[in-house]
Design a protein that fits this description.
Elements lengths: L1 H7 L7 H4 L5 H40 L5 E2 L5 E3 L9 E5 L5 E5 L3 E2 L5 E3 L3 E4 L1 E8 L16 H5 L9 E9 L4 E9 L16 E10 L2 E9 L1 H16 L5
Antiparallel strand pairs: 1-2, 3-4, 5-6, 6-7, 8-12, 9-10, 10-11, 11-12
Length: about 240
């Protein structure tokens, strides 16, 4: 590159080539200085362009930035910007005194699913049912893990092939509840990846016998909804009450 630069440089009156002398080192130093100067100019130009780009990006980010709550030095909220430190709930009423509490921000969609305005779809459905029964208490259903869920609780036929992940007893002052976690296996799963095959649906169930009626609550979620809101759905199930 040095040779090209020297050949491309205009000949001056003192050029060794024109004077018929052997070129000395000095002209090379001049052209190296010219090369370094050109590099410095290019670096400065590139830096200026990068700074302008960053400034533009920062300006656009400021325009679309989400307003966040403001706090004082003691951690107290001074400006909520529309947010609240208190988690609010709504009560969804069923028949014959059954109810469940869910996050107030969740909105039911036309297809029956529930959506969080920030996180997205949270549950495929939340439903409660009630029917007469000859049982006088939940305990008369038998041990939780031995109850035939589909015929006894009136669950969907597809849940006959669901895996029973857990069964537990929950007690309140007014009633005893059986809580179930069901996972409906995917129908099509690559054999090589069978150990990582996700269920196509998760269904949380709670039931209780009260005043001659069998009450059942179901909340279902697909894999995406379960990853997004699984903890909230478990909390929702724990608020199911009757009577």
């Amino acid at each position: 590159m040095l040779v090209v630069l020297l050949a491309a440089a205009p000949a001056s009156l003192e050029s060794p080539r024109l004077l018929g002398r052997t070129p000395c080192v000095a002209p090379a130093r001049v052209h190296l200085g010219y090369l370094h100067s050109a590099r410095r100019r290019r670096i400065l130009v590139d830096a200026a362009a990068a700074a302008a780009a960053l400034h533009s990006i920062g300006a656009r980010a400021d325009e679309t930035a989400v307003a966040l709550p403001q706090y004082d030095e003691f951690g107290r909220m001074t400006d909520g910007k529309g947010y609240s430190e208190v988690t609010r709930f709504n009560t969804l009423q069923g028949d014959f005194g059954a109810s469940v509490r869910m996050l107030a921000s969740w909105v039911q969609q036309p297809d029956g699913s529930w959506k969080d305005p920030v996180l997205g779809s949270s549950a495929s459905f939340v439903r409660m049912s009630s029917r007469p029964t000859s049982f006088t208490s939940t305990a008369e259903l038998g041990r939780p893990e031995r109850v035939e869920l589909v015929p006894v609780l009136g669950l969907a036929e597809e849940l006959k092939r669901a895996d029973l992940v857990s069964a537990a007893i929950r007690k309140t002052q007014d009633a005893e509840y059986y809580d179930y976690d069901l996972a409906l296996p995917a129908r099509n799963c690559v054999p090589e990846l069978a150990t990582a095959c996700l269920p196509e649906k998760v269904v949380l169930v709670s039931c209780a016998v009260c005043e001659g009626r069998l009450h059942v609550m179901e909340v279902a979620a697909n894999p995406d909804e379960w990853r997004r809101s699984g903890k909230a759905l478990r909390s929702l199930r724990s608020t199911f009450t009757v009577g």
